[in-house]
Amino acid sequence: MQVDPTLDDDIGRYNHAQAQPWRAICDRLRNTIDRALVEATSKCWHGGPVWFLSGNPIVGYWVRKQRVQLLFWSGQSFARPGLIPEGKFKAAEISFGEADAIDEAALAAWLGEARAIQWDYKNLVKRKGELRRLTPAD
Questions:
Q1: Distance separating alpha carbons of residues 30 and 16, to the nearest angstrom
Q2: Is 28 strand, coil or helix?
């Protein structure tokens, strides 16, 4: 299913507001993420589109000056290589300067790992900065 970037939702408006080539990257990321994480909810959060499973942030992207940053909140725990650690917790990122640079196989693998491997960011403040890995029972 192709997502129309002019759809009347936060992510559609975010993508549509971007100049090329960023818009093409954003549209491709959104389409791929939506297909892979059909059970996820999504919204613009902290300035960019983010997908959540059971209220826990999983993946999101932001347009930066010279790139589009794709962030996986639990990415440092993934087995598939190619992501760069980001921040002091378990997040990892990859950046794109053009839509053709997106490796669909790698992205699909990371999205699968994002579903299976989650750290509990939803309760990070409640736990006073202690990050715990979620189990399938959570």
A1: 12
A2: helix
DSSP secondary structure letter of residue 75: G
- Please answer whether residues 27 and 3 qualify as being in contact, where contact means their C-beta atoms are separated by less than 8 angstroms: yes
pTM confidence score = 0.89
pLDDT band, residue 111 (cuts 50/70/90): very high
Look up residue 45 and give its two tokens.
């959060």
Give the bridge partners for 92, in sequence order: 72, 85
**Nearest residue to 77 (alpha-carbon basis) of 48, 120, 37:** 120
Q: Residue 37: what residue type?
A: L
β-bridge mates for residue 43, sequence order: 50
Tokens 């939803």: give the residue: 122
Query: Could you give the 3-state DSSP secondary structure of residue 42?
Result: strand
